[in-house]
Amino acid sequence: MSVIVILLLPLIATLLVCLPLGKRWMSGVTVAFCLANLILVVRLAWQVVAGVPPAELTGDGWSRWIAVDGLSALILLLIALVATTAAIYSVGYMAHEELRPKKLRLYYVNYNLFIFSMLAIPVSAEPTLVWIVVELTTLCSALLVSFENTREALEAAWKYVVLSLMGAGVALLGFLVLFAAMHAAGGGTYTWAGLITAAPAMPPILLQTAFLLILIGLGTKVGLVPMHTWLPDAHSQAPSPVCALLSGVETTAILYVILRLFPVMQAVPGAHAETWALVLGLLSVGFAAFLLLQVHDYKRLFAFSTVEHMGIILAAVGLGASAADYGAMQQIVNHSVTKSFCFFAAGATLLAVQTRDIAAVRGLIRRSPFAATALIFGGLAITGAPPLAVFLSEFAILKAGLAQGHYVATALLAAFIAIAFFGVMLHLNRMVFGAPADAAAEPDHSGSETVTPFSLPTSCRLALILAAVPVLVLGVYVPEPLHRLLTMAASGLTK
Amino acid sequence: MNEATSQLLENLNALACGLFLLTAFGIVATRQARGCLILFIVQSLLLAASAALLGLRFDSGHLYGVALVNLISKPIIVPWLLRKTSPAEIYTRREIDQVLNIPTSLAIALALAVLAYFLGIPLANAVGPEFRGPNVPIGIAGLLLGAFTLTVRREALPLLIGLLAMENGAFLAGISIARDLTMLIELAIATDGLIIVFIMGVLVRAVQQHVGTTAVGELTSLKEKAAVPAADEVLP
After folding, report:
1. B104: distance to nearest CA of chain A, Å?
2. Chain B residue with Cα closest to A186
3. Nearest-CA distance B199 → chain A (Å)
């Protein structure tokens, strides 16, 4: 039953937020419900690891629609975690903007609905139902992307909606073809588990067509190159806590749907799902690494880094070894916790300097030491500097690639990761430690002028500290229950 | 059901599919925004007709349901929702200069339709003999033409119609190959279509209020701009 409660909580929060009880009520309710949900999800993940039978987790009669296994528990955990830190971050961040209560309500209503739609992805068992909730994630987050109503935000939201829905149209045909393949194989229940059972009897052409349609369709929403064009826009124009959700967990949740097809495809000899994943993954990593070098907006910098990381995960799955699968799962976790931290840091920087332009920010360390430290820490963490979390998973993936004999692919992957490291650090280093532009322009005043320090809202500081904990801890130590969950999730990628 | 009746039903279905393809071409080529909406409504009615005919042919209650859902949601609720959410201006707009001129667009659309035929035939054959009909290739053509509409249009309403037409295309193929999908899912997909219209209507209104245009395709300020030299790099 707990799964149903997990899905209901954000909906109840949505209703409560609508009560006219002031701004603090809205943010308080959202934080409280996200926290409650996180506790429930941790408990659920614990039960999954402990081997509680799935029927007990979902309740009787729901197995047709809802199912939980290691892979879905992992994604659920990440969504609930980032939802909580982003909700805490929102308290101070949104208060800073001094919005009218009605406008703030729009934010929190959409926020909770967006959380609901994301939580529904990993627990839905029926593929067409998954398609519907994927559509819902786009629709619930569209008004969050356009929230600031500037010309750029509206453009980003429009692009986001049109391209995501265009991809969804392609994916819908894919899911219908998948259904037809299931029918041709003699029927059965149309669920992820049912698909794996029926896969050997499916006509290969139908299965392959369905896979490609879904890979292209949903790949658009994951931000895979060449369908990524909307992603840097949407992931940079939304308010920062929303960016953390979009980049940190929404992309991963959609990627999860694609990953669900891999065990099905393995039933068909010569289906080449892994090859597609490897090629598309490497393409994304490569493009993103070079595009990173030429950005002029630090939020776009992190957005391109998301494209890069989605590519790394997909390429890791494409390597087709169980060690690489484990690395991919670890990368999913580390990317989510680190990228959400990065966007919190970027949001703190934005509050401090009021501009997204990299060239306009110099000497941030003097203006806001806290934001500057967070930004540089986030940059190091996301690009895989040791001893932080991403380093560990990227290292695991590269090691698995070499062990598997994919020398060229692994070398390319390592090279692109290195380029991305330099790209990100080059920009961030200048922002944080560079000499302030105005001081350089007027050398006479540089000595006398003192930079007014900026004080970050307490909730933003708290969210940043909370978000930094897993980034630090997972770099040196993977707790035993998490290790078992990762192993279970990785085994879900093979038959 | 005797041979002649089922043959008649199949022929009528083929006619509905053929007209469906024509409306997809029409959406690509119509300049007037309101014209696009009308063509989309006709297309949805044809989709409903095809579902009803196939329902009659294969005696499937589920397909009647699909026909009914399409009959109510698209021709009635979609225009109503659009009136509620978006500025009236979106109907009256004409696109004088499209990205491509209309003859070129139609030529590309034709090529896409031919491509869809070659993509659709092996699929329809793989599913089984009773699924062989025009639905799959024409559905894929509808999907591709909808996507093509999205790439050449600039105005809000034709773009929205392009999205919905893509979904119509996927469905036209779907009613033939995925005949016994659960009714609950069909209803959810229809509701989803309505949420699309609602959200995009709200977005268009916001664009019109804050930017002063409904030609959303012309918003192109977000890209990696040419390098703006930082102040400290310009100065010696």
Report:
1. 22
2. B127
3. 7
Query: Does residue A366 lie within any of the structural domains?
Result: yes
Nearest Cα residue in chain A from B230? A359
Is residue A436 in a domain? yes
Domain of residue A300 covers: 272-495
Question: Would you state the pLDDT for residue B130?
Answer: 67
| A86 assigned to some structural domain | no
pTM score, two decimals?
A: 0.94
**Helix, strand, coil % (nearest 5) of chain A?**
80, 0, 20
Specify the pLDDT at position A450. 62
ipTM: 0.91
pLDDT of residue A154: 94
The total of structural domains in chain A comes to 1
Please name the residues in contact with B119: beta carbons below 8 A apart, sequence gap of 6 or more: B137, B140
Q: Would residue B129 be called left, alpha or beta, if left means φ above 0 and alpha means ψ between -120 and 50 degrees? A: alpha
Angle (nearest 5°) at CA B123 between A200 and B114: 155
pLDDT reading at A345 higher than 50: yes
Rounded CA-CA distance B125/B114 in Å is 17
Domain-embedded: residue A184: no
Closest residue to B143, CB basis, from A139, A169, A237: A169
Chosen for mutation from B60, B161, B199, B214 (greatest number of chain A CBs closer than 10 Å) is: B199
Interchain CB distance below 8 Å, A170 and B143:
yes
Is pLDDT of A129 > 90? yes
Per-residue confidence band for A90, with pLDDT thresholds at 50, 70 and 90: very high
CA distance A279 to A314: 9
B232 pLDDT more than 50: no
Confidence of residue B96 (pLDDT cuts 50, 70, 90): low
Q: Do A205 and B126 touch (CB under 8 A)?
A: yes
Residue of B166, B182, B232 lying closest to A362 (CB–CB): B232
CA distance A172 to chain B (A): 7
